[in-house]
Amino acid sequence: MKRYPLRSGYGFAPPARSRRRPLDCYDGCFTRGFVTAACISAFQDVAPPAGRPALRRVVRHGLQGGTALVAGTRAANAVRRGDYLSALTAAAAGAAGVMIIERLLRPSQGREDKEKVHG
Hints:
Helices cover 64% and strands 4% of the residues. It has four helices and two strands. A two-stranded antiparallel sheet has the order 1-2. Helix 1 (29-42) crosses helix 2 and helix 2 (52-81) runs antiparallel to helix 3.
């Protein structure tokens, strides 16, 4: 049994937890958002044998979900601190990130029509 230094008159107590680093609340935030959005996207409006276009859509939605979750977390923390400019900046950066991912990974119109015919 591990013995801890005496902190009170009631017996031994574990050491106090160390202070959290400022960015601890963001550890794994993107990964949580990515996995959550990808899981939701994987089975929406898709026939069971999902092909390459469906995988691309799942990745796109996953990246957007991770980006949105990080932005939302940062904005919520900023609002809690009363830093409304940082909250607005986080929300705008998140929206811009989602839009950039959409434009980079969205199928082009010609490719989308071809995928509908073959898919």
